[in-house]
Specification:
Distance between the termini: 5 Å
Number of strands: 12
Structural class: alpha+beta
Radius of gyration: 19 Å
Number of helices: 9
Strand content: 15-25%
Bound molecules: (3R)-3-hydroxy-3-methyl-5-(phosphonooxy)pentanoic acid
Helix content: 25-40%
Shape: globular
Length: 336
Amino acid sequence: MANANLALVKYWGKAGGNVNDAAGGSLSLTLEGLSSLAGARVRGTGKGDYCRWNPPAPAAGLTQFVAQARERLGIGDGLDIVVTSNFPAGSGLASSASAYSAVTTLLAGLADPQPRDAERAELARSGSGSACRSLLGGFVEWRPGKGGSVTQIATPEHWPVDVVIAVVREGPKDVSSREGMLRTAATSPFYEAWLAAGAEDLPVVRGAILNKDIQVLGPAIERNALRMHATALGADPPLLYWEPATLAVVREVWKLRKTGVPAYFSIDAGPQVKVICEPGSAERVAPAIAAVPGVIRVLRSFPGRAPSIVTAPPSWAQLPPDWSGSVPSTVGRGYG
Ligand code: PMV
């Protein structure tokens, strides 16, 4: 089982190659409670793999990922894999990060010998770039370069900030992050400037986390998010991930700040707004955000843990009926 993550400094551009090498560094916060569970059972070699994702999300990429990961890890085929997420998939809430890190954890647990951390990160990243950051808990930096590296810069306990998420659209986005990134790099005249600006934000955000300084963190994450979206808006055809309610929530956050509430937003590739606030401030932020017209619901989170292997599925897991109770015994290692 693995959590999603919120990018405080965004990954929005690939260096090339097939394994999602990033063009720039990024830094995220693993989000407790926004989780995906992956379960597997072995149907027998020669039968191909079968992957499902509940609530229904495109699983073609997942099937391809499982086939490649199995081969790399020396696991036989015929795996029946079900991924189930407890929040909307494909809508800018990093469902792919939690799903691919959950499946990576699951497959790594089935492999013998088990892959080392760097290999796990490379595997997760080949499914979805940001998934490599969900392999660690707390505040996580993904440094680009040959092979790349993923490092926990602070534990979840280091700074127990609150995260309030405004869901303003439930359906999947029109343009995936992968496609959006490629289009931005190929056509936006602002792309190089974006990469340079992101590189400047990174040490500021890292330092603010280490110092637990929201007054420094906040402006840096807001400008990083806005610059990513500005660069994407400059693509041809343009990429506009926002809904009217996205902007309304941004304005509400700015209004809250004027009244002295230390809350700052970030937006990934989708319309949802994630608000990070100092411990204790969520009690004021959540109702204010929930009251913004167009906000469907509000989710709450805080710094989350690394993936874990669990022996029984959580209550929210939507497993097909024929799976009940049989998965751990068939695989023998539980769910990832
Ligand atoms: O990992 P992908 O391909 O889903 O792309 C993630 C893109 C952003 O969420 C917008 C930024 C990030 O760093 O997570």
